[in-house]
Design a protein that fits this description.
The structure holds three protein chains of three kinds. Chain A is mostly helical. Chain A is built from 14 helices and no strands. Classes of the chains: A mainly alpha, B mainly alpha, C alpha/beta.
Chain lengths: 319, 143, 427
């Protein structure tokens, strides 16, 4: 027989649409860079420091874990870097380095790897880490205390704190326009509504996050805040104030939409997002915490597997 | 996904950002400005955020240093904090008697004020005198 | 691999090609040797009509059809060289017939003598192995259930493939004759042609009703046509014939028409050949022609690490040798450069949901794949709709983690079938 060529044989399909995990990670990171830049401008080099350390340590922890457990090296998929970036953006710019190192450890190892790595984490790793740090070092997440040495050109109190402690009249020092363009304190990458909306719109357009989750979350926030506000306009802030402050927009576009901890079917996505919004406002208005969005995200992550059981019947399904 | 190019990229990203992070932390760590901008008083019943800058600056209340910092009366530039002489539960030895610092004619009351009373007296009386600023507890103390 | 454009995020590549852009077929001359495959072990063949060394006439029956295999007819005159066993996909036993071909050799006239009156028996005996592989075994057997609809597919169920589209548009006379014969022989009244929606205008009278399918994959797959065009849902685990439909490719119908007109079973297969740059052209070659001969005639170079695919990019199957012959159901041959071969990964599902949103059968693919990865095939079938899959390949096409989902599904079905046959054998 004549010399045979060595052909590649594999199963169909023989095309792929070109998507990949690292493409997904880097696009989300690229989009997140926009609100992060707004934070860099506002807080200066300390914000750059927190962010850089956070990303590099998240990569390091994943590398260390895969090396110690002798699993395949997964840092190249960019998911650890993405977790580090989102974690960093939630922190105050004045976070000490040791909190960043500990937090990324919690996010990558406890939030993701011990569940089995990418795709198996029940909770959003970045949110889980921040929630644990908030319990451990409460005062580090007091934005008013964190930024006492910073001079901004605007009221430096944390808007949701002002609302919670002093009621709606005290929030007149904030203008919605200012809040939207990032003239407020908070997490280093979560303050600039304009940048977050632009980044979210890009991610939705490219299909990296689901509009069903983001928009239903915002709808949940808006409706619940509106109802509370109508009931007691002095105690409870208006819907736009809630939309533009705290982690609301960041949660809508970057936290709730995390693949592994969010549903994939239409109706579950809508319920997941909407209930997340309702919970956020409930915690803010009648709960103990100033910003409830992180706890709302974790709570919805927890019910996600149950929600995703609501799914359409397969065509041809025989019961 | 494990292509050498992607791996090289992520490794260089981690290393570069580590260096940037360390440099930012060491070279740009923010020192507390003097005079301070805002101060967070840690109090058991609720922390108080005091806007120092607003009280002293001219578009703010434009108070003179000596309006609040009273000791020693002769030196305008010496605005030491109360706690420098009355350290609260620190290693420093507190003054043993009023007379160690004060002249006899300065002292009206032999009993030493508590820090809380001193601050309350100073903030609330001024707020009341000028009809500006909160006077009730929840106006300053937040839990 | 295809790249998504920023302006068309959602797979604009999934639209079927239009035969309008394709020129007339290139005719490949008869090669010196032909290879014919039958899907049964040589030991099981009851009616081997010729022995190695025998001279063959064009159209001579090599293998009489029975319930398992279609008829095998010598596509050209010549000499039978060898009958060999080999293992096909999933280890199925197959038999290869190699023959030397002679273009000048004599023509067998058994069919011509019996073709006066088209009957199901004649069709089955002589024409079940013609180009297009008509599923004639669906008729006349009470046990198989009643077929009430005969669908003539003027569409191809994979991207870039236009073979049957071309036949439907350019061989109207043959198709019309074929439809008449089928109506007469099978007794089925409802004969419906399906064509792409944007081309439904401009068909002449074909002797049957025409219906349209959307030009977007997987709308032209039989199960999807049944659902969308005929409003009949094929139950999970069943086939179109179980809901009373028989799918005939347009080429098969045209070949039946041509056979009765000319008095000899056609032996030339029309194919869409897709080159390494994704451009297609039509070629016509005698059944049994090795692919190598076609590549040589069209100046297509094959290198190590390239891929040769029988069928289209979504549902075809890769073969390991250039010697693979043209068969009755080879509608397309695709050649892929080694550099363009997308690689699968060993990553787990990241739950992005792309597969769930694109699945035409609404299968919870994200859950299904978790069970398939863990070889929990029975749970996958019972709870996660394994058998609702119509095998369009879209889930693997969009998988962000690049899991070979389609392969897992095929493997699961095969393993379950294997388990069931073992259970049946051992009680």
């Amino acid at each position: 027989m004549a010399e045979q060529k060595k052909l590649i044989v594999s199963h169909a399909p023989f095309w792929h649409d070109g998507s990949s995990i690292h493409e997904r990670s880097y696009h989300i990171m690229g989009a997140a860079l926009l609100p992060a830049l707004a934070g860099f401008v506002l807080y200066g080099m300390p914000a750059v420091g927190v962010m850089s350390l956070s990303i590099s340590f998240a990569i390091f922890w994943e590398f260390a874990f895969t090396a110690v457990t002798k699993r395949p090296l997964t840092i190249a998929d960019g998911n650890a870097a993405l977790i580090g970036m989102l974690f960093g953006m939630l922190l105050p710019a004045a976070t000490p380095w040791w909190a960043v190192v500990t937090g990324t450890f919690i996010a990558v190892i406890i939030g993701k790897q011990i569940f089995g790595g990418i795709g198996s984490n029940a909770f959003n790793p970045a949110v889980l880490a921040v929630a644990i740090l908030m319990v451990a070092w409460k005062e580090r997440f007091n934005f008013d205390a964190a930024y006492v040495n910073y001079s901004f050109g605007f009221a430096a109190q944390y808007p949701l704190g002002v609302l919670k402690h002093f009621g709606v009249p005290a929030t007149r020092i904030f203008h919605l326009g200012d809040l939207f363009f990032g003239r407020q304190t908070g997490g280093l990458g979560t303050g600039c509504g304009a940048a977050l909306v632009a980044a979210g719109a890009y991610l939705i357009y490219r299909g990296f996050i689901r509009w069903e989750i983001s928009l239903s979350f915002l709808a949940g926030i808006f409706l619940t805040a509106q109802i509370f506000n109508l009931a007691d306009p002095v105690r409870f802030g208006g819907p736009f104030f809630h939309l533009l402050t705290g982690y609301t927009l960041f949660a809508a576009f970057f936290l709730l939409t995390e693949d592994s901890s969010s549903p994939v079917n239409l109706i579950p996505m809508l319920i997941y997002g909407f209930c997340g919004g309702v919970l956020t406002i409930l915690i803010r208005n009648i709960g103990a915490h100033i910003d409830g969005s992180l706890y709302a995200v974790l709570a919805m992550n927890m019910v996600n597997p149950l929600l995703d059981k609501i799914r359409p019947k397969a065509i041809g399904k025989v019961l | 996904m494990g292509s050498p190019r992607a791996l090289r990229f992520i490794c260089s990203l981690a290393i570069v950002l580590f260096i940037v992070g360390v440099l930012s932390y060491s070279a740009f760590s923010r020192k507390a400005p003097d005079p301070p901008l805002r101060m967070m008083f840690k109090v058991a019943v609720g922390d108080v955020l005091f806007d120092h800058h607003a009280h002293m600056s001219v578009p703010g209340y434009g108070l003179d240093c000596k309006d609040c910092h009273h000791h020693p009366a002769e030196d305008d530039t010496d605005t030491r904090a109360c706690s420098e002489c009355h350290p609260a539960k620190t290693g420093k030895t507190p003054p043993q008697a009023c007379g160690d610092c004060h002249d006899a004619d300065e002292i009206e009351d032999q009993e030493m004020l508590k820090t809380g009373d001193a601050f309350h007296g100073q903030c609330i009386s001024c707020h009341q005198d000028f009809g500006a600023g909160p006077v009730e507890c929840s106006g300053c103390h937040v839990k | 691999m295809t790249k998504r454009s920023i302006f068309h995020p959602a797979g604009h590549r999934l639209v079927y090609a239009s035969a309008n852009r394709y020129g007339d077929p290139v005719k490949i001359p008869l090669p010196a040797t032909l290879t014919l495959y039958a899907e049964c072990a040589s030991g099981d063949i009851r009616a081997l009509a010729a022995k190695p060394g025998d001279a063959l006439t064009a159209g001579q029956l090599l293998l009489a059809p029975d319930e398992n295999v279609p008829a095998l007819v010598a596509p050209a005159a010549g000499k039978l060289l060898a009958v060999e066993d080999f293992a096909g996909d999933f280890g199925r036993s197959c038999t290869a017939f190699r023959m030397a071909a002679d273009a000048e050799g004599p023509q067998d006239d058994t069919f011509a003598r019996r073709a006066e009156k088209p009957s199901l028996e004649v069709l089955k005996r002589f024409l079940s192995g013609i180009p297009g592989a008509p599923p004639l075994d669906l008729f006349g057997d009470a046990a198989r259930g009643r077929i009430d609809t005969l669908v003539v597919c003027g569409v191809d169920s994979d991207l870039l493939v236009v073979t049957n589209q071309y036949v439907m548009a350019n061989r109207a006379a043959d198709i019309k004759r074929g439809v008449e014969i089928l109506r007469q022989a099978t007794g089925v009244d409802q004969i419906v042609g399906v064509v792409l929606r944007d081309r439904i205008q401009g068909f002449g009278h074909l002797g049957m009703e025409l219906r349209a399918v959307e030009p977007r994959h997987p709308a032209a797959m039989p199960a999807k046509i049944m659902h969308d065009v005929f409003g009949r849902t094929v139950p999970a685990g069943s086939e179109c014939r179980d809901v009373g439909a028989a799918f005939f490719k347009a080429e098969a119908v045209a070949a039946i028409g041509r056979a009765f007109d000319s008095g000899r079973p056609p032996a030339s297969k029309l194919m869409t050949l897709i080159d390494k740059r994704g451009r297609g052209c039509l070629v016509e070659a005698v059944l049994g022609t090795p692919l190598k001969v076609i590549f040589e005639a069209l100046d297509i170079e094959i290198h190590d690490r390239d891929r040769i695919i029988i069928g289209g990019p979504m549902t075809g199957s890769a073969v390991y040798s250039e010697d693979f012959p043209v068969q009755t159901d080879t509608d397309a041959v695709m050649v892929q450069d080694g550099a363009d071969v997308p690689l699968y990964s060993s990553y787990p599902c990241i739950n992005c949901g792309e597969c769930v949103r694109i699945c035409p059968a609404r299968i919870p693919v994200n859950m299904l794949v978790r069970f398939l990865e863990a070889a929990q095939y029975e749970t996958a079938a019972a709870e996660y709709d394994l058998y609702a899959c119509m095998e369009c390949g879209l889930c693997s096409y969009v998988c962000t983690a690049r899991i070979p989902i389609f392969q897992y599904i095929r493997l699961a079905k095969h393993e379950l079938e294997h388990m069931q046959s073992l259970e049946a054998a051992h009680g």
